[in-house]
Design brief:
single chain; mainly alpha; 7% strand; binds flavin-adenine dinucleotide
Length: 115
């Protein structure tokens, strides 16, 4: 039985499973990672990899997202085949009437911790 051979068994080779396996292994545990198809076969292999900060509300959601950003930046410095590029976001308005709302939005996001 795989559960008798390893300290931990992680099911699913997406970001959640591989991250769990990675950090368990770093703690010194022996880990079996079981994937039914191929690594990143699910949502983790099909998304564009955006880390949105500007859409998060101040408080818990923003703190959680900033922690996520620190997490991927740390991983990018640690893993040879993982990268992260902070490139910001662009919201375009064409009508001058939206200028005030856009400025308020930017000020609100900056105050919430988005950077
Ligand atoms: C189109 C799309 C765009 C997205 N865009 C973004 C984005 O820009 N930014 C962002 O942060 N998030 C985005 N997401 C969300 C993000 O991709 C998911 O939240 C994340 O990948 C989920 O990771 P996971 O490891 O929980 O699941 P998954 O990546 O789905 O991994 C689960 C794995 O478990 C395996 N599995 C399931 N059952 C078993 C079993 N019984 N035995 C063995 N293996 C099993 C599956 O094959 C799969 O590989 C997007 C999602 C989608 C679908």
């Amino acid at each position: 039985m795989v559960t008798q051979l390893f300290d931990a068994v992680v099911v699913g080779g997406g970001i959640a499973g591989t991250a769990s396996a990675y950090y368990l292994r770093r703690q010194g545990l022996s880990v079996a990672l079981i994937e039914q198809h191929a690594p990143a076969w699910g949502a983790s292999g099909r998304n564009p990899g955006f880390l949105w900060l500007q859409t998060k509300a101040a408080g818990t959601a923003m703190e959680f997202s900033l922690a996520g950003r620190r997490f991927v930046e740390a991983l990018a410095g640690e893993l040879p085949d993982f990268g992260f590029r902070a490139c910001g976001g662009l919201i375009i308005y064409r009508d001058e009437a939206f200028a005030e709302a856009a400025r308020a939005f930017v000020a609100d996001r900056a105050q919430a911790g988005c950077r």
